[in-house]
Amino acid sequence: MMMVSSPFGGGRAPGGLPRLPTPPTGWPIGSYATYGEAQQAVDFLADSEFSVGDVTIVGVDLMLVERVIGKLSWGRVLGTGAVSGAWFGLFAGLLLGLFVNQGFALQLLTGLVLGVLSGLMFAAIGYSMSRGRRDFSSASQLVAGRYDVLCQPRSAEQGRELLAKLALKPPSANA
Prior knowledge:
Blueprint: E1 27-32, H1 35-47, E2 55-71, H2 74-99, H3 104-130, E3 136-151, H4 153-168, H5 171-174
Antiparallel strand pairs: 1-3, 2-3
Helix pairs in contact: 2-3
Domain General stress protein 17M-like: 29-111
InterPro entries: GSP17M-like_dom
Transmembrane segments: 77-100, 106-127
């Protein structure tokens, strides 16, 4: 059997999923306010011996939420730079220590010191170049306004019936 593929990796991946982004297919069998609720619904379907290979969870009305963690200061920037540099330096020192026949501890210490210094330097350069335009740290998260559970038409009706049973259960029984 010969397979023809495009230079962009088209076709299907080994698990049968499309390689390129494609819109989801199927009929809606449930809609939930949170991803956890949608996940719980699919889990219920799986526990009910339903063919969950036909199911897709789709986040609708996507938003990027940036949660501000705190104010940045020179101390916080330099401390974070030193810590991240130290981890990289320890890793580099460990590799050097494994492959160089001169004192393992010396290689580890050298990597640590050089890592801390380079971490400090890169953090200071980056923060000073921002010139106060972004004096806070944050964490970004992609969330949806709702999560729809879709199912292939061949088993959508059965999935809808099972999820209706889940909705009728008391909240303590759904957990």
